[in-house]
Amino acid sequence: MVKHADVGWDKWRVFMADERLVPLGHGDCNYKGYKEGLVGSVPLAAEHIYPINPSLSVEAAAEDYTQKLKQVFSEDVPVFDMVLLGMGPDGHTASLFPGHKLLQERTLLVAPISDSPKPPPNRVTLTLKVLNRARCAVFVCTGESKAANVKVVLEGNEQDNPLPAALVQPLDGELHWYLDSAAASQLSQQ
Questions:
Q1: Distance of alpha carbon 148 from alpha carbon 77, whole angstroms
Q2: pLDDT under 70 in the chain at which residues?
Q3: How many CB atoms lie within 10 A of CB 97?
Q4: Phi, psi of 46 (to 5 degrees)
């Protein structure tokens, strides 16, 4: 069993794969969950969790977050040890939605999205360029509402129009999916 002291929390830096452009204390804010769930529970300093700046426009917030990445990472494209992702019932991951133009983004590290099909419309997201450089990408999916698209992503042949979650394929890393029984209910082999 690993004890909290053995983890090396002083080396951890937590960035958001995506974030809604809402105040940091808002119930829909990803940062709020990480801050409340980690800080105080483990010896992770609050300043090692990097929020977006919700007081900026969505475009400026994306650029500001890009600068935060560049301050921490020495590579041109950050290489995360791990990215923790979920998948929505529509197959989206981070704030990368099916059929959205951001799926074709090849230049930006962090992209603004002002037309999210899921409220709120203004968000900031890491792009596939960054997600696919991770050493390890981990998906955690729960619930029956995701079962059909879990099957499509893990067993389907959707080469012409893959769901965003299927596009997360770390180039030199690992990919892991953790599912509850409801999310895995339509898979051929469980």
A1: 33
A2: 1-5, 158-160, 190
A3: 23
A4: -55, -35
- Chain centre distance of CA 111: 13
User: What distance in Å separates the CA atoms of residue 20 and residue 28, rounded to the nearest whole number?
Assistant: 7
The CATH architecture that domain 4-179 belongs to is 3-Layer(aba) Sandwich (3.40)
Q: What is the pLDDT of residue 3?
A: 56
What does each C-alpha distance from 67 to 42, 43, 61, 73, 156 come to in angstroms? 27, 26, 10, 10, 37
Q: What is the pLDDT of residue 94?
A: 97
CB 126 within 8 A of CB 132: no
Task: Spell out the domain ranges in the chain.
Answer: 4-179
pTM: 0.92
The reported pLDDT for the residue numbered 158 is 67
